[in-house]
């Protein structure tokens, strides 16, 4: 089966969803991964499609014109005081656009609270036919594989799953062997990128690299093949923000090179799962 690729919004975050869909199609992607949940981060554009009816219509038209599919939306963060109902409009958007998954991560140190809110998000997503993929992030509260599996096992929702980001997996110093114990059905897609092998000492540098200076697949020092060969064949969402390169090349050419490097790398490493 040929690998399938999605363009993650963080890779070309200053491209609004309709424009992003068209450039992803021209660059050769199969899917897009959109960010219609506004998080209010510094410099982050607001693409709340639930509130911006014109942009929603244009995004729907772009998907119809190109034949691209929506793989997932992000990010349903779990933090102290969050109301999971806040994510309902974005779930409706995902369902209307034919999306499959919603990405979540945990930013509270209260384990019981995190489990309850995560389970609630899963329950809200279920009627829309959406699965909820839990991602661990090195700068978040749940920042490694063990913590994520603890939440997933305890919440025990059939539409819950695990989303591995190659950068985050490496930075968490997790062992690839531990992926063998994860139920196969929990793997639905992953975030593909690369980064230097040396793990930053400071949280500031870790954050900077993950948000704005990731590397083309095969260019950094992460043993990507060792990770992807432990999990089933699933779509690869290329989340590879690199502000310098995207500004120099333009978003479309940058997205094209992200995809080319990923395909070249994967063609050289046969999948053994």
List the helices and strands in order: EHEHEHEHEHEHEHHEHH
Head-to-tail CA distance between termini: 13 Å
Mean pLDDT level:
96
Q: Tell me roughly what share of residues is in helical segments.
A: 25-40%
> Which CATH class is shown?
Alpha Beta
Unreliable runs: none
State the domain count: 1
Cα gyration radius (Å): 17 Å
Please outline the major beta sheet: 8 strands, parallel
The shape is: globular
Strand order of the largest sheet: 6-5-4-3-2-1-8-7
Structural class: alpha/beta
Number of strands: 8
The CATH topology = TIM Barrel
Percent range for β-strand residues: 5-15%
- Give the name of the CATH superfamily: Divalent-metal-dependent TIM barrel enzymes
Count of DSSP-assigned helices: 10
List its salient traits.
Sugar phosphate isomerase/epimerase, single chain, 8-stranded parallel beta sheet, 273 residues, 10 helices, TIM Barrel, alpha/beta, 8 strands, globular, Xyl_isomerase-like_sf, IolE/XylAMocC-like, isomerase activity
Quick structural summary:
This protein has 10 helices and 8 strands.
Q: Could you explain the architecture of this structure?
A:
- The protein is α/β, with parallel strands linked by helices and 273 residues long.
- Helices cover 39% and strands 14% of the residues.
- It comes from Bacillus timonensis.
- InterPro entries: IolE/XylAMocC-like, Xyl_isomerase-like_sf, Xyl_isomerase-like_TIM-brl.
- This is Sugar phosphate isomerase/epimerase.
